[in-house]
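EI: anyone free to look at a 588-residue chain?
SC: sure, send it
EI:
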Amino acid sequence: MAAVCLSFGGYVSCANAAIAANAHAMFSRRCELQQLLSVLPERLERSVQNHPQLEEIVEIVLDLGRRPIARFPSGDWSMSQEPVTIADLEDAICMVGDFVDDNRAGIDRTLHRISAIRNRGGRIVGLTCRVGRAVTGSAEMARDLVSSGASLLLMGPPGVGKTTAIREVARMLADDYDRRVVIVDTSNEIAGDGDIPHPGIGRARRMQVTNVGLQHKIMIEAVENHMPETIVIDEIGTELEAAAAVTIAQRGVQLVATAHGTSVENLIKNPSLEILVGGIQSVTLGDDEARRRGVQKSVLERKGPPAFSTAIEMASRTEWRIHHSLTATIDALLAGRSPSIEIRNMKDKEGTAPEELPVLNQIENEEKDVFKKLQDNGSESKLFSLYPYQISEEFLKQAIEVLELEETIGVASDIGAADAVLTLRSKLRENVWVRNIAKFRQLPVFAIKANTLAQMIRATRAVLEMEMLRGTSSSTRKSKVEDEIDALEEARLAIEQIVIAKGQAVELLPRSAGITALQIRLAESYQLASETSGIEPKVRLRILPLLQQGSRQSSSINNTKEESSQGRVQGGTSVSKLPLLPTDFLED
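SC: here you go
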């Protein structure tokens, strides 16, 4: 696609057009910065103009009776040795808009924020002049999440760029993905002061909040009156605002918001905002259930689904921690486990623009290269790290445990430390980011059809290429793999639908000793006991509704010609055949 711009009566190249656009954006930012500096008294404006890091200034602090301070990423700098006077403050106040009930004001059609400190009599005795900038590309690390339609919750300490990121997300949704976006602008930080929104939000619309205490009503009004596909909200901080966000999510509208807190754990502990993560309640378990889970009788659980599907913890401007499934994160934290997160880093180019990854045109299966890498790693006793992207990490760990590959394959929580990527085919087609990062890091990508234990086992075996090592024919390998997957899926269904759900014993179909051993390990992963009967090659496994006590309680396989069938558990249930895997699961 050719980009054309008019310059000196002619046309310039696409590259020159990009340079011109960047130059225009930089010129606009400088002009807006000059508008903020013009608010200052003349002596202070002249002083800060000479600072070598003027383009990176963060904010200016004017406190009555103290020296004025300019804050930069490198530290604070005193603008003058003379203290700030009443006249200095009054001159600055006259240059900005009106201060509303949240003690904030702005400069027309800019993103700057002027916050006031008042004394007990209501008189302004201090000003904080925060510099606002629209940075194109500041949300590039979350582009795949934005395009997927997921509801995003951004959190982080002050100064990491939450508002800048959410402004860029609003622009991306409106301009790049043609969505109807409405911004509920609490303090005019996202779209700037004045009636005309700042161009940094693109084609997104903006609703101003006349009274901070009424923000929750404006949120509902935006959905009811303006038919948005996406609602963007800055600073959800009260219980009413959180309840409004939940209501909007239940109406099928995509939510993009920031919230007070630095992590998901902060939201769980915040009684006003816990409803954003589904609400927390204390549940008393029965003796058997508490013993099965290995927990106390009183536990914390979610009341319902979270309002957001994905959460982003902004550790800094260049490091984001992604919780792809906020539901799984909440459940893990409540259970006392560490949640699965993805860490994404961005390199700055001239302080603002993110380094772009090369576009991937085609993904090739590189199992042979992977196997060679596995052999090289094996000589160094190093785990081969598999990164699960938007698939069940629990199923993957269980598959590794069932195949007894704990010392060979590990699960990576960061794609930067992974040797390969495992994901769903549908997610691979939808998300460009994972393909880009895999190509950039030269990682092979393995795709599975469904998020099931059987598919995880097949993928794990494919990574290791265990069948190729056995030297058997292709048809024999395929038949054996199908038998193993069929047996493991039969055991899993029996455990989850009968043994655990109904507390009854189940006798499985007769299998070979090797396949029965895999079923036994699967039962052990559920902490259930088992026993075997019969002779090779028709060994029957009986899974018992009993917890393991110490070592494995399953009996050894009797290789004699006859086996006594006495000693069965009373009340057991025998099944003739459990549902098999769909045929497409067994296709190569």
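EI: The first strand starts at residue 6 and ends at 7.
SC: 👍
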